[in-house]
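note to self: dont lose this again. the chain is below, predicted strucutre after it. 240 aa total, dont forget to put it in the shared folder this time
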Amino acid sequence: MIDAVLLTTARLCTFAGAEPLTNATSFFFARDERLFVVTSGHVLHDESSGHHPDRLEIELHTDADNLAESTGFSMPLYRNGKSLWRQGMDAAGGIDVALLEVNRQALPASAVYEAFTPANLMSARERVEVGSTLVVIGFPLGFHDTLHHIPVARHAVLASAWGLRFQGEGLFLTDGRTHRGSSGAPVVMRASRGAPKALPWKLLGVHSSRLDIGTRDLALDEALGLNCAWYADILLTLTE
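---
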């Protein structure tokens, strides 16, 4: 028996053909009868670094009684030259959240996972105090329980005003230690009410990247230790 929130999150690898490219984090989001894999937009395409994978692979559990059993589930990113994933835009520009719809019929019959739903989303109108404890669930530097194929949870706190778009963008800040490989991780907090009993967590955002400032003296100043997380309510727009 493990906390169901750990089964919402899957290790994601990107490929160009058979060549492995990067490792990241993804999680499942369900709306009505549809299922999606969510991650950061830059995981699937990043023009600045020349990152252009053509497929991704997530690791799925296949035996509820033995989490050591898993398989890779591959999904193409393009069809007929057109991208298959959805990525948001708003008045401030691109939103670093992307999702790809899963063909449920193609999943292994014994696949074991949990999915966030709209009922898990934290509304911008709800009160979340600055300094509230958050959890970032993912695969930092690819690290995880390699025997049971489950992610690790990192502690963070809310570092900017909840419900406000930090510097006009659709994101908020967290204060916590993160690493490469955590891109696409769900940022969650325990729910006291308003979430399904089977998954009593609220989904606040999607971790994107660490935040730094260009004026920092690399020799004298430590990194800020702040991170960008995009508000998770963008998932309602992307799944319409």
